[in-house]
Write a structure and sequence with these properties.
2 copies of one chain form a homodimer. Chain A contains 12 helices and 21 strands. The first copy, chain A, is α+β, with helices and mostly antiparallel strands. In chain A, the strands form 4 sheets. In chain A, strands 10, 11, 12, 13, 14, 15, 16, 18 and 20 form a 9-stranded antiparallel beta sheet that branches. Chain A has a 5-stranded parallel beta sheet with strand order 3-2-1-4-5, with helices on both faces. In chain A, strand 10 and strand 11 form a beta hairpin. In chain A, helix 3 packs antiparallel against helix 4. Chain A starts with 9 loop residues before the first strand and ends with a strand. The relative contact order of chain A is 0.11. The mean pLDDT of chain A is 95. Chains A, B: Keywords: ATP-binding, Ligase, Nucleotide-binding, Purine biosynthesis.
Chain lengths: 385, 385
Amino acid sequence: MTNYFSSNFTLGILGGGQLGKMLLYETRKYDIRTLVLDPSAEAPCRISCDEFVQGDLMNFETVVNFGRKADVLTFEIEGVNIEALEQLEQEGKKVFPSSKTLRHIQNKGVQKDFYQSHDIPTAAYQKYPSKKAFLEGLQKGEISLPLVWKSTQGGYDGKGVSVVRTTETAENLPETPCIAETLIPFKNELAVIVARNPSGEVKTYPVVEMEFHPEANQVEYVICPARIENSVAEKARKVAEKVSEAYEHVGLLAVEMFQTHEDEILVNEVAPRPHNSGHYSIEGAYTNQFEQHLRAILDLPLGATESKVGGVMVNLVGEEGFTGEVVYENITAILQLKGVTPHIYGKKITRPFRKMGHVTIVNANLAEARKIAEEVKKTIRVISK
Amino acid sequence: MTNYFSSNFTLGILGGGQLGKMLLYETRKYDIRTLVLDPSAEAPCRISCDEFVQGDLMNFETVVNFGRKADVLTFEIEGVNIEALEQLEQEGKKVFPSSKTLRHIQNKGVQKDFYQSHDIPTAAYQKYPSKKAFLEGLQKGEISLPLVWKSTQGGYDGKGVSVVRTTETAENLPETPCIAETLIPFKNELAVIVARNPSGEVKTYPVVEMEFHPEANQVEYVICPARIENSVAEKARKVAEKVSEAYEHVGLLAVEMFQTHEDEILVNEVAPRPHNSGHYSIEGAYTNQFEQHLRAILDLPLGATESKVGGVMVNLVGEEGFTGEVVYENITAILQLKGVTPHIYGKKITRPFRKMGHVTIVNANLAEARKIAEEVKKTIRVISK
């Protein structure tokens, strides 16, 4: 058994954003040596790791050279050079999640095919190699409006995804390989995080609910536990476990799902890493998702996933109309509310809709947490000087 | 109102040990810029701060020059040059806790005089400028055996404190100014952490209990909440608040107390900073003590102090007979137990009784947490290679 704690063992992390930053709290807690690779010198991870390397995550040489310096390699973003991970694996390096898992996820067309071939319930879809093929398919009636269009590569934070209701919108989409999915009218959008270690130990977190703004059609709150029937929650956890088994991933797998009006569970998409829908766990769960990811990739026993108290998470995104040096207006006011913890990611520049931080609200009474979350949402503003 | 978050505002921290390290998790979470001063290049704080300065905390010039680079200055250890803090205050620098608070605490004789002059219940004592004077006082019957002897300066982690039961022990004590206290036979040793900000907002944490090993007379577990009657807990919180008011401190004040067999509360000693007795709060409390210290010294609203679940803390100290590169034996085994979080401070070398880390056990059922803590204590060993 490797001695990870206060030793020369080294964990390499590809990506130096907020997910990496929150993972570093845990490597510090366990005193595990870390290297981080990120293209930006201003990355939130630039401090707290033992060594920061500036470089391109999509460059084969850069990733291979970086990975050779680590004992175990993980990533906090899917946009990394897979061939480099494969090369490192061939050299005997441990990469968790593996290049194989990532290959089944990184491209959204491949991801959908994977669900289909593994009997995982998901919305009907068509794959198209180009915009032209997509428009032709639409005209031929292979898929009908309204639909959800997704770029197969590089989508992140809602980029590369569009709800298409008219032919005009379809014609204005970017030129890229894509998938077109049947638009599912859903009762709830749910998520379950599954942890799995190389020894095959598996644990699922409670089902969380993404509550949408009634008009803006944007996730406003992530709520744990989801306010749904137990039978639906059990079904969602079972589906998530099935997805986890199919991928045989190591580390975390965040499984986003729709609960239809008929209480069917359909898998929307997955991410093989700590996830926005699990941020509540830092304050809410017995074992937070970042510590859990670390336990999983190091083949340590997984921690308890249940909640200590109810949790609601609010994303702090840059307000429209503001670009420049960030100011968190009224942050003092929200600190007066019970059970409120702000997490500021450390990005100096705000832009409209940029994820700048999040706020967690915990309370033994979930309804009370939800009420306070609304107050937080109404009060704090991410603007520029 | 100063903009602390993702700005150029700079917090200076005197001392780079484990308390500083855990405080840095919070400055990272709030994205507050930090400088740390510590004599050791291997200090646990060397990463995670924005700038690490190696230097002597007791050197006037070093501390003044360091402090001038910060907007607010705090410390994680009492052994710092007070004259330098006074100089910085005169130059208009904010120092929290203030030099005045520290002056009333750093010297244990002054600390005891302070309790007496502020009507704070404490064990009877005598002060002596030298070992010779102490032995004469003992002979004259000013104070009688058994007694607790304390060096007035520099005591830390049980150093500089002795229970004296025989004249022979007294004669073998080191040559130093000291105090001699009546030995209090107590039912429980309790502690309360009080937070106070410059605006005068005050919050107390629940009473914790230090459970002693029945034979070794060493604190084995810190338990929150203390398993005592409500009336005693209320009394202890009231006494702690009174101490806090007397000091008019800014930041945290950890108040250690004895509960006598007659349920009297006597103050033993105080520390003006995050404290070992508050480590459970990282996992157990709505607002952990380190975030609370930060909120207090920055004059932000204080967070809720109540517990989410019961918590028990076990110190990880170096085992007798082992000196050298540290190994945490059986750490994997304790990770299998529910609600267990290890905190490894990052010291590479273990020595007998050196504080190397701590383990927190949380559980909705405190008795269950206490049982698991015993399992942790029996299982993990801090040894050398």
